[in-house]
Design goal:
Distance between the termini: 57 Å
CATH architecture of the largest domain: 3-Layer(aba) Sandwich
Number of strands: 20
Strand content: 15-25%
CATH topology of the largest domain: Rossmann fold
Number of helices: 20
Helix content: 40-55%
CATH class of the largest domain: Alpha Beta
Length: about 600
Amino acid sequence: MAAPPLLLLQDIALTFGGTPLIESAELSVSPGERACLVGRNGSGKSTLLKIAAGLVEADRGKRFVQPGATVRYLAQEPDLSAYPNTLAYVEAGLGPGDDPYRARYLLEQLGLTGEEVPSRLSGGEARRAALAQVLAPAPDILLLDEPTNHLDLPAIEWLESELKSLRSALVLISHDRRFLESLSQATVWLDRGRTRRMDQGFAHFEEWRDQVLEQEEAEHHKLGRKLVAEADWLRYGVTARRKRNVRRLGNLQAMRQQHRDRKRAVGTVSISLAEAEQSGTLVVEAEGVSKSYDGRPIVSDLSLRILRGDRLGIIGPNGAGKTTLINLLTGVVAPDEGRVRLGANLQMVTLDQRRMSLDPNATVAETLTGGRGDTVVIGGQTKHVIGYMKDFLFSPEQARTPVGVLSGGERNRLMLARALAQPSNLLVLDEPTNDLDLETLDLLQEMITDYSGTVILVSHDRDFLDRTVNSVLVSEGTGRWLEYAGGYTDMVAQRGQGVQARTVEKEAKPRGGDTSSSNQSSAAASKRKLSFNEQHDLKTLPKRMGEMEAKIAKVQEILADPDLYSRDPARFQKAMDALAQLQTELSAAEERWLELEMLREELDG
């Protein structure tokens, strides 16, 4: 018999501004269940999650939470303004019986000290602090709205591992496919105000969605009703894209192999031949390029060639210097050493992290045409603005819609559309996937695949990198960057590991005065101390070992029954397996505690 749900939403309806946003939504969360909530931008996913968290009241429907069950909600824009520092903010989320060490442990794992002042936090740092706050009490239910936004790859992979280790039930909203595929066991699809549920993870979602939509279309035709062409394209066009992209994955693999072969051959090409290739073939050539800021190397002795048609992904933790590297390769910033040569006849379009500014009073059509006529020029060909809008999932009715009333996802699509409408043969995209929904990511992937020029792409989205690039340039620390053929998964296979978090070296810098006292303070600062994680383990391991010993005693009592094997062989085997596992865990815990206790004594001594 299935356990009763911890959280239950039934027949939820909500209307904003006279327009129904949610018409009939259901959500059921059982203990330990991991579900993802998917749907297009503007479909009401975040609102439904807020209703589940009790922050928004629905117009109709029931919300039930099991008495005593704890619920924690991660908002997209957390507010830390009421707290003096990040540690106080995280500790405020702890309950009376929660482990106080866990707050510091989580902050440390997320790259924060706990002393950060909220008013000076970046968006990514605020998101890390908010994650630490909701994870610290290990609640029964975690409701996470875009938890990977503004996180770098090391933080995303750590969060993935941490969530897998928790017993909490999860409901996730995310645009990160790899993250959803790794964590989800059930999928709830919010579409046109209603929810559908599939008891499988996100990896099976697109195939299921296509089947549902195709069945809907067949039923409409059986009833003799003609679907409106524009609405049909907006909903079913995604299905066609997905099928085309499946075929394109094979082409991408072939491109990657060609890239491997070509890159191996580059080392033998003579200087004269390289110069002969400058007319459109060579896009960027970096020779021995180095760049430092405040004594910290960002790029050290980098040599790289980017040829026409290459799709280069740049990967590294926050603070590694990815944006600086792009500026070096595109000639925006001059190197301290070495030289960068740009190919002839380059026309570059850049989409940076801040995105281009949009006039909130201009209409969608005016933004795309610059207010001149009703056509845009794409790849030398004139296209009506309505047709171009459809390529970016806008309906014809939105042509006169002011930019200021668009949803966040729609504004992101519009910015992409305006950038890609400019003539170019070099496309530079710095974090283009931030805040985009899954269908817009499909669209952007298709645009990059169809693009005839060269692409330089910075992204933390592992799946997106795998689908779009044929080589990656990875930060190895201290300014070193190495190129690997293939996408993110290929890089991990070649490198043997993913991207590591950047380590920040803190050194005592004397500013005049007695240098000997400065050296003494540097030595004191560098003295080895137990980390928060080690302190936590040292404190909690004895209790955990006692709990394991009690469990072992109970299992041994079961096995003490001489007739157990003949009466119930399955239960006997289950008890034997449990005993072996508990004894192994106890042995490992004892060794860890002994190691930490010896380390503590050594440091204290």
